[in-house]
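re: ur question from yesterday

yeah so i grabbed the chain u mentioned. its 142 aa long if i counted rite. heres the sequnce exactly as i have it in my notes:
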Amino acid sequence: MKAEDDMKVAQKELAKVEKALTVKEQFLDMMSKAPTPAQQRKALLAMFAERGINPIEELMSFTADEEVPVKERIAIWKELASYTQPKLKSVDVQQNITGEMKIMTVDYSAVTKTQLNDIVNAEVIDNEGDYDEFISDEDKNE
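ran it thru and got these structure tokens back, copy pasting raw so excuse formatting
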């Protein structure tokens, strides 16, 4: 008797799962047959063409109608402008800046003037001609 009761409970659970599976299969089948946005757009344009309707012209006729409140006309113009004028977007500029800095410390009490000149002259790199764009034409010709 216990086995029969367990069998009935299992059959009820199986029926629920099968029903849920059938619903899911039907949903997936409907989704696979649903028109894509491009197909929906084509159907809508075909319907407009069939009836001789141009939505842009219809909206523009409302902007010329003095009975339409100014706020609504402005909203229509804004909507029409969105089709011809790009909306500005903020641009987030991020940059990692890396560089090198060389710090020299000199104990002047322990250094003579000639030693100091030797250190400074050793660090100076002479790249003559690298900065010609900063020299005037007169100085270049000298």
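noticed a couple things. The chain has six helices and no strands. also Residues 111 and 117 are 10 Å apart (CA to CA).
anyway ttyl
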